[in-house]
């Protein structure tokens, strides 16, 4: 029987995901393994992610140094991603989990960038104790495919 639990975890994703999470790292790699920095949020953004037990979530990301912020190109968000503005990105909505394949699917009820409202995002998630890892395929503003890995620690 597949419980959907991550290796080293006794609870399925639907149970272990619930909580408040603080971002430890956010890194993007090209298909050739080169690391890229997202100019909108920088190499070391500050972020908070919350999943409640009733299927609601909220995410906020901020560029650590907003003294200089890359101008938004006006390009809408691309594959499995939302669009930051002025060094900030925020969205919230509802979520469902699939314990069999360890994914979460989020539907954005509200978002900083209007074009992201109603967007559905699916992410592969692993929870080991108080560490959450999200990995997704996305495309940089210039069209370059990327693998983004976000690592979070539980803070509540």
Biggest sheet strand order reads: 1-3-4-5-6-7-8-9
Report the biggest beta sheet as strand number plus sense, adding barrel if it closes: 8 strands, antiparallel, barrel
Q: Terminal Cα separation, in Å?
A: 30 Å
Provide the number of structural domains.
1
Backbone shape? globular
Query: Can you give the helix content as a percent range?
Result: under 10%
- State the total count of DSSP E strands: 9
CATH topology call: Lipocalin
**Any low-confidence stretches, pLDDT <50, length ≥5?**
1-8, 73-77
Query: Which architecture per CATH?
Result: Beta Barrel
Rounded Rg: 15 Å
Order of helices and strands: HEEEEEEEEE
Look at the structure and give the mean pLDDT: 86
By helix and strand content, what is the structural category? mainly beta
Briefly, what CATH class? Mainly Beta
Question: Strand share of the residues?
Answer: over 45%
Summarize the structure in short.
The protein is mainly β and 156 residues long. The protein has one domain (13-154): Beta Barrel (Lipocalin). The chain has one helix at 13-16; strands spanning 19-30, 35-36, 46-51, 56-62, 88-98, 103-111, 120-128, 131-139, 145-154.
